[in-house]
Design a protein that fits this description.
single chain, rod-shaped
């Protein structure tokens, strides 16, 4: 009876170790696939970063030009208001 219990215990331990090894192998394979996909994503993000490097300085240039335009539009709006106020007076003559 004792020999049977020892044998069954050993079989149970072997089964537990086998199941754990199987699932650890599956987890390892999943992690390898995930690592490969993350490497591709990293490559793509770096490519996008390189393509977008030019945007930063260009945006600063565009912003400077837009500030100049915004300042000029205030003066232009004042001239347009003055011209609009003078236009009805010239039509009444």
């Amino acid at each position: 009876m004792t020999a049977l219990l020892v044998t069954l215990t050993v079989i149970e331990v072997v089964l537990v170790v086998a199941v754990l090894a199987y699932y650890l192998a599956r987890i390892g394979a999943s992690l390898r696939r995930t690592s490969a996909l993350l490497a591709k994503v990293t490559f793509g993000v770096r490519a996008i970063e390189l393509q977008c490097e030019v945007i930063g300085p260009s945006v600063l240039t565009v912003n400077d030009q837009l500030r100049g335009i915004a300042g000029a539009l205030g003066d232009l709006a004042g001239l347009a208001d003055a011209a609009a106020a003078a236009a009805p007076a010239s039509r009444q003559r």
